[in-house]
Amino acid sequence: MLKSRRQAGVLVLALAVVLAGWWWVERERRADPEPGATQRAESPRPPATQAQSDPRLMPDGSPRIFAGRIVDSRGEPLARHVVRLFATAPDEPLADPQPETEATSDETGAFALEGVAVGTKLLRLFGPGDGDLPSLVDRSHFGDEPLILFHADEGSLWLAVPAQGIEGMRFAGPRHASFWVQGQLEFEGDSDTPPDRLRGIDERGITLRDAPPAWGLTEGPSPGRSIGSTPSRPMAVELIWPSYSRHADRTFLVGADHPSDTLLVVSQLGYATRSCAVPNQQLFNQAGTIRLTRVAGLDVDVFGAAMGEIELRETGGDLPDRVTVHAISWRHDGPERLWSERRTGRYQLRVTVPGCAEWTATGDLVLSDELPVVRVELEPAP
Hints:
Layout: H1 2-31, H2 35-41, H3 48-51, E1 65-71, E2 82-87, E3 98-104, E4 110-114, E5 119-126, E6 133-137, E7 147-151, E8 153-161, E9 166-172, E10 180-187, E11 206-209, E12 218-219, E13 237-238, E14 247-248, E15 251-255, E16 263-266, E17 274-277, E18 284-292, E19 297-302, E20 309-315, E21 322-327, E22 336-339, E23 345-352, E24 359-365, E25 373-376
Parallel strand pairs: 1-9, 9-13, 10-18, 12-21, 19-25
Antiparallel strand pairs: 1-4, 2-3, 2-5, 5-8, 6-7, 10-15, 11-16, 14-15, 16-17, 19-22, 20-21, 20-23, 23-24
């Protein structure tokens, strides 16, 4: 009996020694792990929100803002217009842009897009509904009057959205109008001209204003457009506007900047300027037929001048005296064509060119199919 108890005690002691040894080995193994194990333990996995960051958010987590104001070329706000932003692929920044987000401008033209990602964007502007920009479509080959169509597409612009977003910028779309006037022009001599040789209408010479144009010293028209900048009307970034024709055959469509612009002024080269009052009772009004009469003109050929001015003073013909100043353009090949505002009368020319003596001449204004040519030979200044 005593011997059995002694054997059991030895067995328990041996088992304790084995367990203690196993515990010690495991303790040492955990204290000195494999080299890679320490690196994995010291690099915790980042939070899911950080690993999958939203490109539309700012670093502080707030949505990136693209906000501004839409105006037309007059500086007037464009209300209820859709500003649509298109995103591009990083590897093809100008190919196949896809819609990203859009917003509608309020009554002041203000808009705001939230959650815009950084990168190259295409901004497109659309009018309300089916559009509010009219154009004239020629249907004369069908025997019908020109048709007024409305267009929603009002321009586009490529731009880059920075990390801080865009706020407070003004974008300028095409010119709108307070009201529109439609009419027809009848040019003297059209009845004797073959249809394929009829002259076109110069839309720039058909305007609506609140007072007659000054008859005194005037400048020749200069091409180009500018929306300008004043303290009350900051500079705006112009979109690339679509071109919508507002004349078809002899019919024109012209818009007024203000409700008070009820004087229609038609000025076409080679014809006397006509002015007449037009109604402003609805959005589209009719002016009827405006008959234009031919006037006298001159071809002034200035030899060896790349810049300078030609002053034309015209008198007689039962009209007030009139002076116009025209710039000599080095881009123009051939004589400078000057038109008077009368059929007959007298003219006085004065040509001034830097480095040359002033040149003057006088003569008669005569209505003719072939304009008289005045040749100017300049002398060096004394």
